[in-house]
Amino acid sequence: MYNLLKGKKGIIFGALNAESIAWKVAERAHEEGAEFVLTNAPIAMRMGAINELAEKTGSQIIPADATSMEDITNLVEQSMEILGGKIDFVLHSIGMSVNVRKGKHYTDPKYDFTTKGWDVSAVSFHKVMNVLYNKNAMNEWGSVVALTYMAAQRVFPDYNDMADNKAYLESIARSFGYFFGRDHKVRVNTISQSPTMTTAGSGVKGFDAFLNYAEEMSPLGNASALECADYTISLFSDLTKKVTLQNLFHDGGFSNMGISTKVMENFKTEE
């Protein structure tokens, strides 16, 4: 360990179980010397094992619905009280599509479901930063990171309306990140991660096949949840103080590939 986050305080959204990226980030942040509060929606907390993570990392848990301004305000105020000061880092690792869960095709969604997923997956990021910004709750050179996916830029048919949500999330990072940087010297970035076998990822139709495809397309292979956590830690640290408004691809090179020799071999015809 390098003590990259020694003395830093944070809030980590979205740790559900040991497979989730947020869980790995919490473990790595703890190892690097950080103190933090864990939070998730009450229903997600009932599904997951967040108490185990809290015990392991010496953290307190504050349930919060990330779509509720009242809950987020309470979360930020309580976190500063528990941690004894302003916040240095925040991880937004939240995503949910009701249309995907209910098997609604992208071309014929239920729009109430669309709105709910958009609010949870993207607008919640704006709401979290709204409270942090207006309460001046973050230290200078603090870092806010949200997790995204390349479907925000390219077509992945079965990713459904989550692609739209991620595109909106990335735009929020740039737009709010400008004001947060200008006024409070806080960085805001998104990490576009490889397909990762988490609870959320495995809910996407045909995920296994796509995971294998991405592995064969990427020169370095898919990035794991733990490797994403390491990258996130670097963005929370003081080593990246001038990195902001970026969508950072952490995908083994997949995002710049056209075709790989491994994939081409599957389409060769007999000579």
TrEMBL record:
The UniProt record lists the keyword Lipid biosynthesis: yes
Reaction equations catalysed: a 2,3-saturated acyl-[ACP] + NAD(+) = a (2E)-enoyl-[ACP] + NADH + H(+)
EC number: 1.3.1.9
Keyword Transport annotated: no
Keywords: Fatty acid biosynthesis, Fatty acid metabolism, Lipid biosynthesis, Lipid metabolism, NAD, Oxidoreductase
UniProt superkingdom: Bacteria
Pathway connected to this protein: Lipid metabolism; fatty acid biosynthesis
Cited SUPFAM superfamilies: NAD(P)-binding Rossmann-fold domains (SSF51735)
Family from the record: Belongs to the short-chain dehydrogenases/reductases (SDR) family. FabI subfamily.
Name of this protein: Enoyl-[acyl-carrier-protein] reductase [NADH]
Lineage start: Bacteria, Pseudomonadati, Bacteroidota, Flavobacteriia, Flavobacteriales
